Amino acid sequence: MERPDTATRGPQRPDAAAVTEALTQGDCGEVHGDAGRRAQYAADASNYRQVPLAVVFPRERRHVLNTIAVCRRLGVPITSRGAGTSTSGQAIGSGVVMDFSRYFNRLLALDPDTRTATVQPGIVLDELQRAAAEHGLLFGPDPSTHSRCTLGGMIGNNACGSHSVAWGRTAENVLELEVATYRGTVLRLGEMTQGEIDAAIAVGDDRAHLIASLHRLAERNLATLRTRLGRFPRQVSGYALEHLLPERRFNLARALVGSEGTLAVILSATVRLVPPPPARALVVLGYRDACAAADAVPGLLGHRLLALEGLDQALTDIVTRPGTRRTIDTLPGARAWLFAELGGEEEELPCRAEELVAAARESAGFTGGEIVTDPLRARQLWRIREDGAGLATRLPDGSEAWPGWEDAAVPPEQLGSYLRQFTELLARHHLRGAVYGHFGEGCLHVRINFDFTTDHGTAVFRTFVTEAAALIAAHGGSLSGEHGDGQARSELLPLMYGPDVMALFQQFKDVWDPDNGLNPGMIVDPLPLDGNLRVGPHRAPPSLTTVFPLHADDGDFAKATRRCVGVGKCRTAAPHGDVMCPSYRVTLDEKDSTRGRARLLYEMTQGEVITDGWRSTEVRDALDLCLSCKGCSADCPVGVDVATYKSEFLHHHYRRRIRPASHYSMGWLPLLSRVAARMPRLVNALTASRLAPAIKRLGGIAAEREVPRFADRTFLAWFRARTPEGDGHRGPVVLWVDSFNNHFTPDVLKAGVAVLEHAGYRVQVPPGTQCCGLTWITTGQLGIARRVARRTATALAPAVRAGMPVVGLEPSCTAALKTDLPELLDGDTDARALARSTLTLAELLVHHTAGWRPPHIDARSISQTHCHQHATSGFTADSALLDAMGVDNRVLNSGCCGLAGNFGFERNHYDVSVAAGEQVLLPAVRAAAPDTVVLADGFSCRTQIAQRTDRAGTHLAELLARASRHQPFSSADKESAP
Predict the structure, then answer these.
(1) Is 644 in contact with 681 (CB distance < 8 Å)?
(2) Is the pLDDT of residue 976 over 60?
(3) Is the Cβ–Cβ distance between 257 and 155 less than 8 Å?
């Protein structure tokens, strides 16, 4: 039967403006057709790029149905999208993209008695898990993207995750679906008996015609469905027609799972929940290589495992983040590991774990094991595995690695053989990749260093994946084990299934979607696997010169921005011990995520959708709510650094142009503060007078913000008039005098002097008045920032050469000295030496002050880690110091405070700034007992706390100084606001 392709190949396809107008008039929810939004949705986590005509955010059920109706009338295809983390290209399309994640994401019902939940497709898995956990239940499938992936996306791909060994794929956990076809038929799908099938067909409506056609297809092909499909758990490729079999109760809901949005649009889903085991244990097993680990799998599966994950040393070698690196370095000595998780009663787990290790010891290549009993260590180890998709995008030498063959699966007994031959195939094509994945179900993930920038490299990609598909078929495997086929693998399906099964797939698609209006080019009638490549040999993007050297990306701004591979960790809506991305957590808008910004910047470098380069208003607006917190530079698995990209962009965007008022009032704050320091009382009187609203307006400052009060006397004036104390037997140390504490809160620096002298140091300050340049960097005034940085590096060079440590008390400035200065002054030996010499106060006292014992204080505290400290130094030294002092400290899992330097003071940023603080930090401060110390080293953090609560933040130096003087301390009474 010849299929009409009106949705994809119509002769009069409307343009983006016409489609946007029609959708807007059609009551379809929130509709966007601007270049910026289309650019953000042109890619997912795959190798592919398709620019949509429009993006729709449906809020209600009627918006979904209306969008389908408008697109059908216009002959425009629809792509359904959740978190956009697809690695195969099925979350992008050239028509209309419907993003369900922002609004159509509610939990509709949860019944603990029947252990079921009904959800809208945009709900994030972690949200469902939190709701289920209140009733002692969980949803079994748990992909590593659980913090941002949606149930609709999981249904589209038939997602599995680490625990499918125990709880099955998404298909086994879906009970019922409500869907709409491209022609507007709404159906509720689930299991059906023969009587129910007959009754449904007798009605004679559109639903009856669809059910009758599907029933005939199954009846005529029973042998094929029984022998060719559903052969092993991870056979995810193609359509799951085995669920049409009578012994599987003609389950159309499960047959739809894994169809990648090509058959129908999901309106709601009812899913099965399961009770978790009362206790769990993690057993780490080491092997001489990944192949030996794969060989061992069949012998371990009989131990009632919850999970059995594999990890190759090639993946762990990529890790550079210090905390994760420390965890990796404590793994059992090996070149590959299996992470085996057991579940059951707590008293039985030690014995079962020992039995598992004993079984592993019988396998060839076993090097040792560890039974992990510390829950914190177990979480740290699992995080390595969860970050695999991001970590594997860069190989240890920095070269890029790509998906495309990242999800193949074979029966577990075939895994060792397949992996050996796959490794040989890589070597024949001179390719490399880090292997990891769900070894317990024979599913391997690997990202490979394909070279898409040359014709030869692209040809190698096609040849390699074609040969890999033949290898999978020879092992009785599946091209996809959970990620779906998409554009990456649909073209290869005939190698796995042959023409007869492919014909059945085509018939199945034709019954559901005869107009080919839903996600065309996926599974059947496929797009070429080397078409629509995001990076290609024939792209000729404009040349962009940068101020920052971007050495890790060969000085290429486009390469830097395409570090973002779309795994979407920045779309996590709740803090999980990280900072990224505070603005997204407030707005839940893709444009305010690290990924959205990186994607828009990348499109800017290509000059196709975003055509005006550095002058782009779309990029400027997308960067507006970036707090420059640097959280992404540490939390993004591939080190996307939007704060640096924003500074670079603002530098070029406003070059020789009038800047926003805040760039002058706050960008030049270090110099303006020096003027104010000559008459602080007058300045304070003016900023608190009736003129304050006008002053704020002129300075681009939010009307709701209080202007911090200048100190009557700067720290430098105090320091240069004092007599040093202590014997200074440890030698000199340079105390970095930052502009914030110097002019607004000099008591912090005074406390730093007291602590350093108490520890035996002779305190010096930089000559003159120096600045790290941070305020100019964050506002993109890089020419001035560079001059300020050079002056600072030169001024401190003699002290640094003499071996003096430089101690910073303001985390943002300390981070600037450590990271930004050597980048701005690329190649400057003084700047690099200064970066190496710069320490936090805790780092100096814990790691470089042998024999010093901190004063003891019997106190409780909560602490807010400054974003820049999180991104550079971390809080490990501070925790060790507080512990040594006897302080019972709780580190808040709060992310960014929301003020973030100039951001929270700028006009139009106040609401987002406060909302970010209200997520964790500010409620925690208000809830703290009166005698609990609120520790916050950052000036911004203390200011946000002071302006939004009745408490005051305390710097670690102040706590140390007061403990040294044996003074009782309480932060219950608010001190003068900074």
Answers:
(1) no
(2) no
(3) yes
SS3 322: helix
Task: Read off the pLDDT band of 966 (50, 70, 90).
Answer: low
Phi, psi dihedral angles at 487 (to 5 degrees): -75, -20
Write out 175-229 in H/E/C secondary structure.
Answer: EEEEEECCCCCEEEECCCCHHHHHHHHHHCCHHHHHHHHHHHHHHCCHHHHHHHC
Sheet containing 107-111: order of strands: 107-111, 116-119, 265-272, 174-180, 186-189
- The number of CA neighbours under 13 Å toward the Cβ of 605 is 22
> pLDDT tens digits for 353-409?
999 999 999 999 999 999 998 888 888 888 877 666 566 777 878 788 999 999 999
For residue 448, give Cα distances in angstroms to 429, 433, 520.
11, 4, 27
* pLDDT mean over 912-936: 97
Tokens representing residue 349 in the block = 């787990």
pLDDT tens-place string over residues 24-70? 999 999 999 999 999 999 999 999 999 999 999 999 999 999 999 99
Alpha-carbon distance of 603 to 366, in angstroms, equals: 48
| Residue 128 to residue 686: CA distance in whole angstroms | 52
Q: What is the mean pLDDT of the chain?
A: 94
pLDDT in tens, 214-228: 999 999 999 999 999
Q: What is the pLDDT of residue 146?
A: 93
Q: Are 531 and 89 in contact (CB under 8 A)?
A: no
- H-helix or E-strand containing 683? helix 680-687
- DSSP H/E element including 119: strand 116-119
Which residue do the tokens 């983390």 mark? 85
Tokens of 881: 């110091």
205: its two tokens: 């409506």
Paired strand residues for 366:
287
Size (the chain), residues: 978
Q: Helix, strand, or coil here: 128?
A: helix
Q: Is the peptide bond before 897 cis (omega within 30 degrees of 0)?
A: no
Residue 302 has phi, psi (to 5 degrees) of -80, 5
- Structural tokens at position 70: 């408008």
Q: By the 8 A CB rule, do 618 and 856 touch?
A: no
Q: Give tens-digit pLDDT for 431-459.
A: 999 899 999 999 999 999 999 999 999 99
Geometric angle at alpha carbon 478, from 476 and 483, rounded to 5°: 165
DSSP string, 620-631: HHHHTT-----H
Helical (H) or strand (E) element with 349 = helix 349-361
160 has pLDDT over 90: yes
Return the closest-CA partner of residue 388 out of 118, 144, 591, 34. 144
Half-sphere exposure of 142 (CA within 13 A, CB side): 22
DSSP state letter for 413: G
Q: 62 and 18 in contact (C-beta within 8 Å)?
A: no
Dihedrals φ, ψ of 869, to 5°? Answer: -70, -40
Tokens 């079984």 belong to 359
- Report residue 626's pLDDT band, with 50, 70 and 90 as the boundaries: very high
State whether residue 415 is helix, strand or coil.
helix
Calculate ∠ Cα 711-841-870, nearest 5°.
95
Please determine, for residue 831, whether its predicted confidence score (pLDDT) is greater than 90.
yes
Contact 888, 861 (CB under 8 A): yes
- Measured CA to CA, the distance from residue 971 to residue 166 in angstroms comes to 50
What pairs with residue 436 in β-bridges? Answer: 311, 445
3-class secondary structure per residue, 687-730: HCCCCHHHHHHHHCECCCCCCCCCCCCCHHHHHCCCCCCCCCCC
Q: Report d(CA 205, CA 504) in Å as an integer.
A: 24
Q: What is the DSSP string of 725-768?
A: -S--TTEEEEEE--HHHHHT-HHHHHHHHHHHHHTTEEEE--SS
Bridge partners (DSSP) of residue 444 are: 437
The rounded distance, in Å, linking the Cα atoms of 307 and 137 is 18
